[in-house]
Amino acid sequence: MGNIEKLRLEADTDMPLRDVVMNTLRSAILRGDLKPGERLMEIHLAKQLGVSRTPVREAIRLLEIEGLAVTVPRRGAHVAKMTEKDLFDVLEIRDALDELAVKDACLRMTDSDLKELSEALSNFKKSCATGDVRVIAQADEDFHSVIYRSAKNPKLVAIVENLKEQMYRFRYEYLRGIEDFSNLIAEHEAIMKDLSERNETAVKEEMHLHLRNQVDSVRNAIRNNS
Question: What is the pTM of this model?
Fold first, then answer.
């Protein structure tokens, strides 16, 4: 069983209570305080967090969208288990979208886009020095978001946004297993260089490598925890 007694509401007065509860439960799942397969009982979670059942129920629904929770008829909600099938399904789609994004970005990126990407890279490097996986994950996501926006295809960006929640757990698990971020920083730097040179072939290879490393790392984590 997990450590539900450790749960404390992550206060943020600027966010709806539903989102605060969701972020609290998400953090607990990613840290391992709530274990894969553990029941997410609304009444117990509400009591522990000092809220009503409604924001807990809404938060669990959001966690289902992210793939962190599942609801089984007559059994209720529980923390979702990570599977290799889920990993490959999500990252196969992401790989195809990455290739399309960098192809279009090589054609359509402006100097302003490149400046924004450079700033995102600098922020990512700074985030790696913090050792805070959530901060690093956000900075990593921000870097890639610049690339997607630079493709100048709003439909592509919308699809990626929809996939982002499903990617989060795998991204977090990958980053959590890294002790030295120098290789990951080097991968980001290579992507930045290739895009600035409009080298479509090279940047596609870098993006494929970047994702393959993530797949290999998370797959090993899933197998070790199974």
Answer: 0.81
